[in-house]
Design brief:
The chain is built from 11 helices and 20 strands. Helix 5 crosses helix 6, helix 6 packs across helix 7 and helix 8 packs across helix 9. The radius of gyration is 31 Å and the shape is elongated. The N terminus is likely disordered.
Length: 472
């Protein structure tokens, strides 16, 4: 640092004490030096932030790109942040006005709980507010039983209030299957849900080869951020999810009793653009949090696991603010992938040696196409504050780039739909998207029959030309 300071002083003194031309050169050198220092400082800051959380991630909510990570792919218990997945699945499988009854198993859930009693009837909407604002464990089980029973044939037509404990567990097992299927569908790499409320749990799993494994309820910070991003952007029930999780309070009456909830997501009032989130705590998981922020059309998502234990409940808010402020400063640009997607008319024509072309003696040519993209696009509404198009957050010194790997020529035969090459889209060193380039049609190998047809065709043309000349 002292050497840098001396160099700065030298450049500044040189710009002051010398002639106009020399002063210009010194000022340009000084500007370049300051820019390189700033970029170096930013790179160093990207490498390490001082966080309380054992595992943390800052994610670009639209592209899924990890902007900052700390053990972000380490499997860990995640407590009531599990209820993010529970909430979105219930919304996707139920109407808000649907009624359900409370089972004996749900009534026995530990605190924090609504205090619902066996046989009582509630609507889905009220229990979802109970789930996401106050994080009630009995509401989570009741909602999961209600959805899960539809996937257990022996429970069809049976009210939840009449479930035995074994039947409740069957319905919950079906619901956890839905949770894990959804996690896999949206790209989670190491997530396994057992309970709908996030209470610590283990279970024995038997693999196809007969091996028995003990699995724990867990996720990773990266997967948790990906789940929340799905709820915000891609779920067909994203509007309802945001409406529930952004409510500062909620009250309702049922079964002759009154209930009132307050939202425990303190981040909603901490920063401009705070969008949604969910807290969590168990003795094993510690304090956990997942939250999102929209600013100037950009979506940032933070997930924290094991962010302190009792007497450290504020650590999660400090870490969240630090990561969000870092993201706003370090990744201030938003681009759209659509702007640089390669169109099929931009693809080159490939020559195919020994291929059946239009004429004998000339190489056949192959027209290429881009394989249908896996992303069909979401029908979900765009949250307020986000611009159209799938955005990618970029640092000041980053640009979206694309590269294409294709052979200069091929040798027949080539099958229609055969993979010929690939296109890769990057932001910095991160691969954002890849797609295959395939053959649009078949090119057969030259054989004797084709050669004879070509020769015959040439003869017919020549014969026709000779007759025309003779006639005229």
């Amino acid at each position: 640092m002292k050497k840098m300071a001396r160099l700065c002083r030298f450049l500044l003194e040189g710009s002051i004490n010398h002639g106009k031309r020399s002063r210009t050169i010194h000022m340009l050198l000084f500007a370049v030096f300051i820019l390189s220092m700033a970029r170096g400082a930013l790179a160093a800051e990207r490498e390490e932030l001082s966080l309380y959380a054992t595992s943390a991630v800052l994610m670009d909510g639209e592209s899924g790109r990890v902007l900052y990570g700390k053990a972000e792919r380490e499997p860990m218990a995640n407590a009531s942040t599990t209820k993010i997945m529970t909430c979105i699945l219930v919304l996707e499988h139920c109407d808000l006005e649907e009624a359900l009854t409370i089972s004996a198993y749900a009534e026995k859930m530990p605190k924090v709980k609504l205090g619902a009693r066996r046989g009582e009837e509630y609507d889905v909407n009220s229990l979802l507010h109970s789930l996401m604002l106050e994080s009630h464990n009995d509401s989570a089980v009741s909602l999961a039983e209600h959805v899960g029973r539809a996937f257990v044939p022996e429970l069809n037509g049976k009210a939840e209030k009449d479930f035995t404990m074994e039947e409740s567990l069957l319905a919950l097992k079906a619901f956890s299957g839905l949770m894990n299927a959804k996690a896999s569908e949206i790209g989670c790499e190491d997530t396994y849900f057992i309970t709908p409320n996030g209470l610590d749990a283990t279970e024995s799993v038997t693999l196809e080869d007969g091996t028995a494994l003990i699995r724990e309820h867990h996720t990773t910070a990266a997967d948790l951020a990906r789940i929340l991003s799905y709820c915000i952007l891609d779920s067909p029930k994203n509007v309802e999810f945001l409406k529930i999780t952004r409510q500062p309070s909620y009250a309702f009456c049922a079964n002759g009793r009154s209930f009132a909830f307050n939202n425990h997501n303190g981040f909603l009032s901490m920063m401009e653009g705070a969008l949604t989130g969910k807290t969590g705590f168990t003795g094993k998981a510690g304090y956990c949090y997942a939250g999102a922020l929209v600013r100037d059309g950009r979506l940032y998502v933070v997930a924290l696991l094991a962010c302190g234990w009792p007497n450290n409940r504020t650590y999660k808010w400090k870490d969240t603010r630090k990561l969000m402020e870092f993201g706003l400063a370090a990744y201030p640009k938003r681009e759209t992938l659509e702007r640089i997607l390669i169109k099929e008319e931009e693809l080159p024509v490939i020559h195919v040696k020994m291929g059946q072309g239009q004429e004998i003696g000339k190489d056949a040519t192959l027209t290429l196409c881009v394989q249908a993209r896996n992303e069909e696009g979401s029908n979900a509404a765009r949250p307020e504050g986000l611009m159209e198009g799938r955005g990618i957050l970029l640092a000041e010194d980053e640009t979206l780039e694309r590269s294409m790997e294709l052979p200069k020529e091929l040798t027949a035969p080539v099958l229609a739909g055969q993979k010929i090459g690939s296109i890769t889209y990057r932001a910095g060193n991160t691969i954002l998207y890849e797609e295959d380039v395939t053959a649009a049609s078949e090119v057969k190998e030259i054989n004797l029959a084709w050669c004879l047809r070509q020769v015959l065709g040439i003869y017919v043309k020549m014969e026709g030309a000779w007759k025309w000349q003779k006639k005229y």
